[in-house]
Amino acid sequence: MSWLFVIIAGVFEIVGVAGINKLNEKVNAVNILFMALGFGLSFLFLTLALEQLPMGTAYAVWTGIGAAGSAVVGIIFYKESKSIARLVCIAVIIASVIGLKLVS
To answer: 9, 3 in Cβ contact below 8 A?
Structure first.
């Protein structure tokens, strides 16, 4: 269950980062709430995961999910660069997250 909590925390981290982008587009209560809920739920689920998982591994996986996921969201929804180099770097992050899971 702890690994599921890390994945959920990573997804909410992506929501929080998307909220920052929305907040940069327009400052309003909805965008502030969107960002705050994303990060708040992210930290909640990370905290739950840390009850059973090593801190370093859980944090690295959570960060990797957030970083790679945010980059993919930027490519899909915000027309950010999808160069081969960028896609390879995202793939390396994902491979690293999977590797950490496998060795933990």
So the answer is: no
Rounded distance between C-alpha atoms, residue 32 and residue 88, angstroms:
32
Tokens of 13: 């981290």
By residue range, what is the domain housing residue 6? 2-103
| pLDDT (tens digit per residue) in 31-74 | 999 999 999 999 999 999 999 999 999 999 999 999 999 999 99
- What angle, rounded to 10 degrees, do the helices at 84-103 and 55-77 form? 150
Residues 6+ apart with CB under 8 A from 44: 9
CB 49 within 8 A of CB 6: yes
CA atoms within 13 A on the CB side of 40: 6
Residue 24 CA, chain-centre distance (Å), reads: 18
CA-wise closest residue to 47 among 59, 57, 36: 59
Size of the chain, expressed as the number of residues it contains: 104
Number of domains in the chain: 1
